[in-house]
Design brief:
globular; about 15% strand; five-stranded parallel sheet; Rossmann fold; 5 strands
């Protein structure tokens, strides 16, 4: 389904490197939409399903072989689309995702796969969002935030890797459904930027 195809729901995706505040802002956006009377479904990738669990474990224990890792993310997403994303959109709900296939373009792209090819593979089965918010922050500040929340950077969060991922995310800038959100400033300031971008899509 292309981004211009009419469907009953609204599909919003938040992307960006680790430490940009995606999860917090996704949650706040969901609360705001609920207060406006919209039924919002909040979800994330990797999911809590079997494939998602395997890749999440690998962040701590050592990354999987590149081909396996890519395949696991695709399997996880296929299940997510079938079980949650597509039915929720068809039911007219707002779906808010914390990460989606743009993360595969960025992170598995940074491991050597062609981001354009990853995108093509995903768009064969994964609906294109109505709005893609790229939560942007320089890598030093992102790593500082990861440290400040008491986490140590895991295998996915190495500086050089994040630089490359950020570059791939920002390469999407300019496409009609993409908005880059500056995540510097307070949570309230960033939330206001997110609401402003989403507000245009609410009828
Ligand atoms: P993350 O959002 O950090 O999950 P959690 O907070 O539960 O650990 O996702 C874990 C990592 O997975 C993150 O560093 C990015 C990576 N990732 C990919 O490499 N490819 C993908 O397709 C997705 C969805 C995530």
């Amino acid at each position: 389904m292309s981004s211009t195809t009419k469907r009953p729901g609204l599909f919003i995706v938040l992307e960006g490197i680790d430490g940009t505040g995606k999860s917090t802002q996704a949650k706040r956006l969901g609360e705001w939409l609920a207060a406006l009377g919209r039924e919002a479904v909040l979800s994330r990738e990797p999911t809590a399903g079997p494939w998602g669990r395997k890749v999440r474990e690998s962040a701590a224990t050592g990354r999987l072989a590149p081909e396996d890792e890519l395949q696991y993310f695709l399997n996880d997403r296929r299940q997510h689309v079938e079980e949650l994303i597509a039915p929720s959109l068809a039911a007219g709900k707002v779906v808010i995702l914390d990460r989606y296939y743009f993360s595969t373009m960025a992170y598995q792209g940074a491991r050597g796969f062609d981001p354009a090819e990853i995108r093509r593979q995903n768009e064969e089965f994964a609906p294109v969002p109505d709005l893609l918010l790229i939560m942007d922050l320089d890598v030093d500040s992102a790593l500082e935030r990861i440290g400040a929340r008491g986490d140590t950077a895991n295998e996915f969060e190495k500086r050089e890797n994040l630089e490359h991922c950020r570059e791939i995310f920002l390469s999407l800038k300019g496409e009609g459904f993409v908005r880059v959100i500056d995540t510097r400033g307070t949570l309230d300031e960033v939330a206001a930027r997110v609401r402003e971008a989403v507000g245009r899509h609410l009828v």
